[in-house]
Amino acid sequence: MAPDARLLVGVLAALHALTVCAALVARADLSDTPRAWVRPYESLAGVYQNWNMFAPNPPFSDTWMEVVAVGSGGKETALEPIHGARSDVAAEWRYQRAGKIERNLLSAKRKKWLKVYALGRCGEVPGTRRVRVMRVSRRTPKPADRLNGETYLLQRDRAVQVKCP
Questions:
Q1: How is residue 125 annotated by DSSP?
Q2: Cα separations (Å) of 118 from 4, 70, 78, 98, 109?
Q3: Is 16 exposed, middle or buried (0-12, 13-18, 19+ CB in 10 A)?
Q4: Exposure of 48 in the CB half-sphere (CA atoms within 13 A)
Q5: 106, 134 in Cβ contact below 8 A?
Q6: pLDDT at 20
Q7: Cβ–Cβ contacts within 10 Å for residue 59, how many?
Q8: Which one of 18, 22, 35, 107 has the largest count of C-beta atoms within 10 Å of its C-beta?
Q9: How many other CB atoms are there within 10 angstroms of residue 140's CB atom?
Q10: Rounded CA separation 113/101 (Å)
Q11: Which spans in 63-147 are helix H?
Q12: Pick from 75, 74, 60, 72: which is nearest to 138 by CA?
């Protein structure tokens, strides 16, 4: 390995170790100053996430999008979402990035991006006049209820609707 490459890898490893230490110090309530220094790196590298995102416990709730193309005469056609609802297994042992992207897209801060996404879906079904994106949320049932096949739909909101060009 070239000396410059070794130096770069060493600096990145030191920065990552500093980030982990700063996160531990911040959790110990000693000071938030070290965390503020490394927060830009945490955001860039995506290392600000906590263990709960990857733990094998079933989540308390699930949020996903439903995308519907509305044609002339009001005919509705369901379109495939980015990720959709979680599977019905009791616990997922792997982290699903597409689900996080979908949930982030449904947040109030990203409404413009959601409209761009909906406009991009306009051409999938010929004759589409509008595309409607719904935000659907459900609470994870208790284990005994889940074994009986129960799911509880908490909320179904229209996140955005766009007219197709």
A1: S
A2: 46, 12, 13, 17, 16
A3: middle
A4: 11
A5: no
A6: 73
A7: 15
A8: 22
A9: 17
A10: 12
A11: 97-105, 111-120, 143-147
A12: 60
Structure tokens at 36: 């503020």
Query: Are 97 and 113 within 8 A, CB to CB?
Result: no
The rounded distance, in Å, linking the Cα atoms of 36 and 26 is 9
Diameter of the chain measured on Cα atoms: 68
Q: Are 34 and 21 in contact (CB under 8 A)?
A: yes
Where are the strands (E) in 23-60, listed by range? none
Place of tokens 């897209």: 105
Using alpha carbons, select from 145, 159, 162, 165 the residue that is nearest to residue 66.
159
pTM confidence score: 0.56
More confident residue, 135 or 41: 135
Tokens of 33: 């100053």
